[in-house]
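Hi F.,

I've been meaning to write this up properly since the lab meeting, where we talked about keeping a consistent format for the predictions we share between groups. The idea is simple: the sequence comes first, exactly as it goes in, then the structure tokens exactly as they come out, then a line or two of notes. No screenshots and no reformatting. I'm using this chain as the first example so we have something concrete to point to.
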Amino acid sequence: MLLRLPRTRWLALCLLSSSVLAASPDGVVAVSHPAAAAAGARMLAAGGNAIDAAAAVQFALNVVEPQSSGIGGGGFMLVHLAKTGETFFVDSRERAPAHARADMFAPDGLPMTFPLASTSGLAVGVPGTLLGVDTALRRWGTMKLADTLAPAIELAGHGFRVNRFLAEDIANDAGRTQIQPETAAIFRPGGVPLAEGDWLVQPDLAKTLKLIAVRGPDAFYRGPIARAIVRAQQRGRSELGDAGKGRMTLTDLTRYKVAIRAPLIGHYRGWTLAGMPPPSSGGLTLFEILKLLERFPLGDASQGYGFGSPRTLHVMTEAMRLAFADRAVWIGDDDTAATPQRALLNPDYLAARSALIRPDRRMDTPQAGDITLQDDSAATRPKLPRAREESLHTTHFAIVDRWGNMVSATTTIEYTWGSGITVPGYGFLLNNELTDFNFLPAADPATGNPGANDVAPFKRPRSSMAPLLLLKDGKPVAAYGSPGGATIINTVLNVTLDFIDHGMKMQQAIDAPRLSVTHAAGKLDCEGGQAFMQPAFSVATQDALRKLGHTGLGAAGTDGCRETIGSVQAVVIDPASGAHRGAADKRREGTVIRVER
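Output, unedited:
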């Protein structure tokens, strides 16, 4: 179903859902929830631009997808300006507080368990989403912050129907909505989890958004809300004692700064890609995988590299394993310690890494590469830190306005339900972003490990978020991204390969099944459990991968591709006609809204 919103009126679209490819020379919004898509369309219909619409979408997502993102979290927003051709990233990633220490998740030398650490105040980073949105609006928007908050205030105050996605996340929360009484009161009233179709009203959140509409970000980073945040993150799980209490102070909140970053630029088969640089690993790891794969004739079925063929999936898997080995050691917050971006994308280094990929066999577990290119002995290479649990949640949206300005934004509170701590009286969840750091300090001069993702004061934890802009001959063609923790990188990779190498339209590329490996020694995950995921990865193909030694697919002769990976929202500008299109992901309640002139 295609939703059209004339600029002259505001339609009640909160109960509509659409997963379509919509063509338009005007504004297009692609979001994972219809109510949030409607909020963005409302801004475009009122004459706002893509940045105005992005602000409204983000605030609305705090209401309707509270388990995934909100003002208690952070994110990255790609902004492309049609008039100048410039692209910027607004980095509102959470920061560690001033009192953070490298060993704070392992105070006795042993790492805390993730479930306990991630639901304690110790995991809460200084939130950046609100200041990031306000910064983007002030620089490139045309509307006031209060105007973009209006749809979210209405949704929070009047309520909305709980969809399947939210209901499932409440029911299958591993206890995260039950630990803190304020969170349970919202999502499990009377001890009963909200179900699909229930009506959810959030008066405390509405009050908070109204205060921000009047006073701006100062209402959040100073005063009563700030004091409430600090008190809330001092809660810890009893099993951890005082070690689990948060370390954030009021000074940390007032000192928080947003960073405006230039994009990381990559190239693949004549296309240009603008991606998020560190502290996200998204752009750098994605570009490394693409360059590792560029020597293979992906898309050429006559050579065995058609979509979903054993060779295609095998070399994709091997490239992921190599790049994630590098990610684990070398990538962190570039503001704290320089990430070797040029070295990781050096053509000679990439050629040496790509040569490790053999089409007829699975390599042994790769280590991080020697970025000096001077010593190829495995003994001198840093050891990989242990893999940790990551949420498959977060959210992504994409927007193009009638002038051609584009936004691709990924935002999060980290794990599903973040820390599980709702700020009392104010109705929003706090993130557990600091668990994206290494639990055990990894810095080791003897092996050359720089500890790029070790905890440090004011440092941003490494992210996987990968909002992307795809350009051809210098002109923007598509903006997209995905949620999904470390799988974000591979989700964006799958869509990029499907679009460029396999010649799919954007909606086809989004619908197609995906494959992911997020650790050098990790198992293979792949999709196929839903009818729209076509063309499917056949059992014969899976058996071929099993014979090569890939794990995670179950027994031979069975269909092991049953996962759901990511949720891509995209906007496209047709190079030939200039038409604007949107594509949304059926894996969530993806919605495209076209705003006519």
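Notes:
The chain is about 30% helix and 15% strand.
Residues 6-21, 374-380 have pLDDT under 50 and may be disordered.

If this format works for you, I'll send the rest the same way.

G.
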